[in-house]
Amino acid sequence: MKKLLIIAAVLAVCAGVWFICSREKVPAAAETQAAPAAEAERAAAFVSEFRAVLAANDLVKLKALCDNPKSGDLAAQLELLRGAGLPEKPERVEFRTARSDSWSLCYPVDGGMIQIVLRRVDDGSFRFKSAYR
Length: 133
Hints:
The chain is of the alpha+beta class. Helix content is 43%, strand content 24%.
């Protein structure tokens, strides 16, 4: 019986600590915000330009447009974009409120959505960061 009381007390303390710590976090829905229309168009234009360079298979230009051209899974992400029939405009363009340099564009495709993540650099231009379903 004494062991059960000790276990219950430890669980209560853990629950209290978790409750106090979790109150400070921003809800997930508040972490992103819809991008202004003009900025959303600029991001979508970058994706169109990136896909054109990808289709032309110009590796020098492609590396210059990537945030991390030495990423291990970059080849798989590029293949995903090559094989996807993306519409001209994304369904949604958002940026992270905590880090305004991280932008997300969501494109509807057969079988779901493809999300393309861009990084905004200091001069205001974009770089390709990742793509996934």
